[in-house]
Structure formats: C-alpha cells, structure tokens
Amino acid sequence: MTGNQGIRYFVIVLSIALSCWAIAAEWPPSLGIDIKGGSGLTYKVEKLAATVVREDDFGIAQTDVNETITVISNRINKEGVKDIQVRQQGQDQVVITLPGMSKEAADAIRARMTQVGQLLMPIIAASSDASAQNVPFNRETFDRQRKDALRAHHTDPTKPLWTPPAAFRWFPYRPQRLEKDTDTEYRSRIDDYQKKLRDEPWEVSGEWFFFAPEFWESGGDPKVAGFTGSDIEDPMRSNDERGGRAVTFNVVPHRQTDLAAYSRKFMKRQMALILNEEIWNVATINGELSDNVQITSGNVGFTSEEQTWLLTCLQSGSLKLKPRLLAQDEVGATLGGAAVNRGLLAFMIGMALVTAFMLIYYRVSGVIAVVALVGNVVVTVAIMSILQASWTLPGIAGLVLTLGMAVDANILVNERIREELAKGKS
After folding, report:
1. Euclidean distance between CA atoms 284 and 272, whole angstroms
2. What pTM value is reported for the model?
3. Any residues with CB less than 8 A from the CB of 219 and at least 6 apart, and which?
4. How far apart are CA 185 and CA 415, in angstroms?
5. Is 4 within 8 Å of 296 (Cβ atoms)?
6. 95 alpha-carbon distance from chain centroid
7. Which helix (DSSP H) or strand (DSSP E) does residue 198 occupy?
8. Helix, strand, or coil here: 98?
9. Where is 95: in which H helix or E strand?
10. What is the C-alpha to C-alpha distance for residues 412 and 204, in angstroms, rounded to an integer?
11. pLDDT in tens, 129-175
C-alpha cells in the first residue's frame, strides 16, 4: 500500500512540475480581443477563374460564402481555442478579427488566407488540343499575349489582363526543393519566387494546361467539373521512393471510374497537381489512375512546414472563393481596462476566500484540499498554454467556476468523513 502511495505522490508531483514547465515555456499567454484588442482583416471574396465556365458566370452564392467561412475557420483555428472571429460583412466580404499576437503569427494567418487550397489535376497543353470553340493551342502566341498584357497592366492597372481561350490556363511552377538545399535556402528561394510573382509575373516560369471540355465543363456546373480537391479523401503524411516527405490521398469511390477514363484519354501525357494556383507536381500518365495519388517535391521531399500546410489544406477543404485583402485595421479591446481589472480581482478574491474557508473550517483536511485546488489550477492553465488558447474574460470566469466546483467536491468528502468519525468509525 505504501509503495502504491509513493507512486501516486510521484505522479502528482511530476504532473505539477511538467505543468509549471509548460506554463513557463508559453508565458506570457495569448490574450483575447476583449482584453487586449487585436487586428481586423477585411477580405473581398471572388470566384475562382477555374470555376467560371461562362463569361457572365461571376455571381457569388451565399452557400459558397458560408462554406468559405467554415473552411477559413478550420484552417486558422482548427482546435477552436483561439479567440479568432470569422464573419461575413455585406454580400462578398469576410472579416477576420485576430487577438493581439506576434507579427510572425499574424503573418502566418495572412499567408494561409491567400492560399485558396484548391487542388486541380489538369493536363499540360499540347498543339493537338483545342477549346470547345475549336480554338487551337499555340504556345508562342499565348505566351506573348499573356506577357504583353501583364507588362501593360503592371504599368497601368486600369488596363485589363489577357483572358486566354476557354479550356486553357497558365500556372506558375512552384520552386522544387533541391538535394543541396537546406530548409533556410529553400525558404529563401520560395520568398524570391513569391516576390517575382508579385512584382514581375511575366518573368516567372510556368506552364499552359488543357482543361478538356468533356471532363471540365460537365454541362456548365462547376461544382462537379473536372477533378479537384472535392474528389479526394483521407489525405495523410507519407514518404516518396527516396524517403522524402510527401502527401498521399485517395480518390472518392464515386469518382474513381471518371478518373480512370480521364487517365485513359490522356495516356502518356503529363498531368499536374496544382494547389493554390501553383504547380506542385508533374508526372507522366503511364497507367490507369483510379484510387491513390501522391504529391511529392523534387528529390528530397517537402519541408515539415510544407507537408503540414498541404495536409491542412486538403483536410479542411478548398475555398470556392478566393479572398483578396482589402483593409487591415487595429481593433481596440472590447472591454475597458476597469472591467478586466475587476474580473482579475474577482478571481483573486474568490481564490483567497475559498482558501481561507477551507483552512479555517477543515484545518488539516483544508490544507490538503487547497493543495489539490492549486494543482487543479496549475494543470488547467498548463493545458490552455499547450493548446495556445487565448485568455478571455469569460474564460477567466470559467476558471473561477472550476475552483468552486473543485472545492464543492472536497467539502462533500470532508463532511462525509466528519459524519463517519462522529459515529465512532476510524
């Protein structure tokens, strides 16, 4: 019995020690909007070019806006413990309110917002391809018109960009990681690529793709067109044949027959996996595809961050609407400093009164109860720190309620012990 008690005491002490370490590692905690304020990001949502199948098809459905809000919430607050608010404003705007956080954390969220997470699987265009209007593919002409329009638009933003014939689209190659690249070197190349894509898009390497009308238009319904992220399931971490990080996913059963027909139609042609309107992977179709697909990167695989981001995109779903940042504003705390101070004061007074009552009324048993109470608070705060949860005033009130409930259980136990001792039991 003594040995068992020793193990219990050791586990309790170890748990509290680890909890204190977790709190210290994540201190200071993230404060919610009501206490610290934060930033407000306003985005305008627009239809993706890949889903516009008619020239007049630019309307935005409310269901698409609702789905966009859900996907964004899952991406930036998957655990639901951060005080991040995502809401619709007007017909085509989404407002994200972020609590006070580090510049790096805010930049990461903004980066996730610019990535639509849309997965496409088109075929690299060839001279034998033609649109539904029988417009043939001409690489030299298409490249010249695209680049000339980009340069003119860069000089004068009022000039329109060139729209290629239906069934053809151009996408940039995302830099592949090389064997000699360290994580820092690869991230630097990605930064250079993104800067060039923003400042000199006509200089970025890319490829033209053919969206075969018989597979990608589907009677004009973009929701069932082609092969996209909605046709996959069970994305998971994996390794390529060289041992590098990769991501594997399965094709949903009801689309496997269609994918097999698609791969037969374009046998020996090159098919790409395009994510967030960037070419991530290109491979030649050497056999019939139906159920399992892997995304790889170069000879050494993805970085850990890229692999995690790919999984997040594929698991949370793709956006049918592309967010474009309109404004960023500072948001003041929704509660005044006096209200916050009163809340903290209430927590400390409550803790002091409960401790005094237990010590005066129950003495030795009260000491044990107070120690357990402190341990309860430490472990709770540690869990919040590990989850990087934001501290809000309702959260502090919940912690006060937790104290009361924990003490209530101790009071019941102590009163029962008193009753048994009064009956002469030991």
Report:
1. 9
2. 0.54
3. none
4. 66
5. no
6. 16
7. helix 183-199
8. strand
9. strand 93-99
10. 71
11. 887 678 889 899 999 999 999 999 888 888 888 888 888 999 999 88
